[in-house]
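Fold it.
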Amino acid sequence: MPLVMMTGLPSSGKTTRALELERLLSERLSQPTNQHRRLSVQVVGDSTLGVGHGVYGRASEEKMARGALLSAVERAVSRETIVIVDAPNYIKGLRYQLFCVGREVSTTQCVVHCAIPVAEARRINQARGAEGYESALFEELAMRYEEPNPAAKWDSPLFTIIQHDPNDQLPFEDIWDALVEKRAPAPNFSTAMKPVTETNYLFELDKATQEIIAAVLDAQKSGVPMYEIVVPGTGEKVRLPGRSLTLSELRRLRMQFTKLNRQVPLKIDKIPELFVSYLNINL
């Protein structure tokens, strides 16, 4: 059943809003006259998985944490459970992967954006003391944060809460309508297990991913130490994990991405950007 992705800057109040939403959903579902009372609510995220803030400062541990989060969400998503993903979800590539998890089971989903100015989030973080993020890590995550875009299908429908405005409340009724009252997309909407027959799309998917793999390998041949590699088709850069990438490793990730997106067709001009995001998450 429904999937809710929380997102926002560090110390923007995501967990507070996630728990508020869990409470409101549970209260609504417990009403004797509610026709959806068979549903339950489950929060999955850093706190439930035992992931500390420091993980986000170490690339290898962050990668493992993302894998654990995706696995936990996949296990939790069912016809009887509303899953709230209470994690930073600060990279659009991760939100896209979560989106695909929901699509594979044909469920409704939404993104709740806890919007707050960086300066205010920084003040809150400092006030939290040892419970907050280390100052350098906060600045790094704030810089890396990719705000949700309502025009992107993996960020839609998008509900934005202005956290520093005391009068801006969680839009519970709108979220309820989007998640519970609205029918989930039909299985053949985008992720039905059927091959895509649009030859041009498959050609462009293959071409764009091959060009990016070739650009990464060519850049590494120069022998010049680098942390990011410019690739064709997008302004996004491939971030190296502190070591050289092998052809077999890149081919494996390309095959995974291609398999996933034969079932969830993308806009052709978005393929390079999303493939780079996919690489950056999984490398």
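The CA atoms of residues 11 and 121 lie 6 Å apart.
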